[in-house]
């Protein structure tokens, strides 16, 4: 288990870390899913753990791998592979990937990834807030917060927008199915 530097409450200094003459640095957690490199702001990540055993929930969204226990609390684990339309890996169970835990509205949520590459410190000027069409044609732009550009202007990593990604996975559960609801009312 890798606990990220979040033992203390985040401050404004964490949001705007020191930088070089080229500008302030942004700290990111980099990881891979189906060969594509993604990143999240370090401020959004709580910790990184080995993929836990999960209990699959019937009738849950396909992207929900299941629920796990983490320090006595329930941890939903969402598969980024499934969200992006890729098959689950058939890798060796010893190398079953990692889960990046993010805090979403006070609730920990696990994002299952293939491999965590580490932490990056990039100059703010290298972060492009627009979603790159050239590198991510199969990734819904609404799930991205932009991209990290390399020195040549190419895409070094896609910035994932964890909040919209998590909310989209569960939004259909909040609304009743119109035909089912109507059928129940007519039956009485």
Helix and strand string, N-terminal first?
A: EHEEEEEEHEEEEEEHH
Kindly report how far apart the N and C termini lie. Answer: 53 Å
Uncertain runs: 5-18
Q: What is the count of DSSP helices, taking H or I runs of 4+ residues?
A: 4
Structural class: mainly beta
The level of helicity is: 10-25%
Write down the Rg: 18 Å
According to DSSP, the number of beta strands is: 13
Mean pLDDT: 79
Quick one: biggest sheet? 7 strands, mixed
Mass-distribution shape: globular
Q: Strand portion, in percent?
A: 35-45%
How would you sum up this structure in a few lines?
It is built from four helices and 13 strands. Strands 2, 3, 4, 10, 11, 12 and 13 form a seven-stranded mixed β-sheet that branches. The protein has a six-stranded mixed β-sheet with strand order 1-5-8-9-7-6. Helices cover 14% and strands 41% of the residues.
Describe the 3D structure.
- This protein has 188 residues and is mostly beta strands.
- Helix content is 14%, strand content 41%.
- It contains 4 helices and 13 strands.
- Strands 2, 3, 4, 10, 11, 12 and 13 form a 7-stranded mixed sheet that branches. Strands 1-5-8-9-7-6 form a 6-stranded mixed sheet.
- The protein starts with a strand and ends with a helix.
- About 7% of the residues have low confidence.
SSE order and pairing:
Layout: E1 2-3, H1 12-15, E2 19-20, E3 23-33, E4 36-41, E5 45-50, E6 64-70, E7 73-79, H2 80-83, E8 98-104, E9 107-113, E10 115-123, E11 127-128, E12 144-149, E13 155-160, H3 162-170, H4 178-187
Parallel strand pairs: 4-13, 7-9
Antiparallel strand pairs: 1-5, 2-3, 3-4, 3-10, 5-8, 6-7, 8-9, 11-12, 12-13
């Amino acid at each position: 288990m890798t606990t990220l530097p979040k033992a203390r409450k985040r401050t404004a200094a964490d949001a705007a870390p020191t930088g070089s003459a080229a500008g302030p640095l942004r700290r990111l957690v980099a990881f891979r899913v189906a060969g594509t490199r993604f990143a999240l702001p370090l401020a959004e990540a709580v910790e990184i753990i080995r993929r836990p055993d999960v209990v699959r929930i019937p009738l849950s969204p396909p992207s929900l791998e299941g629920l796990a226990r983490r320090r006595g609390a329930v941890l939903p684990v969402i598969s980024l592979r499934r969200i992006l339309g890729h098959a689950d890996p058939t890798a060796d169970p010893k190398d079953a990937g990692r889960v990046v835990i993010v805090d979403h509205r006070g609730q920990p949520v696990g994002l299952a990834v293939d491999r965590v590459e580490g932490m990056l410190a990039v100059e703010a000027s290298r972060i492009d807030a627009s979603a790159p069409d050239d590198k991510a044609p199969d990734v819904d732009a609404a799930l991205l917060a932009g991209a990290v550009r390399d020195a040549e202007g190419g895409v070094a990593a896609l910035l994932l927008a964890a909040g919209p990604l998590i909310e989209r996975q569960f939004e259909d559960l909040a609304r009743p199915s119109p035909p089912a609801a109507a059928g129940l009312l007519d039956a009485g």
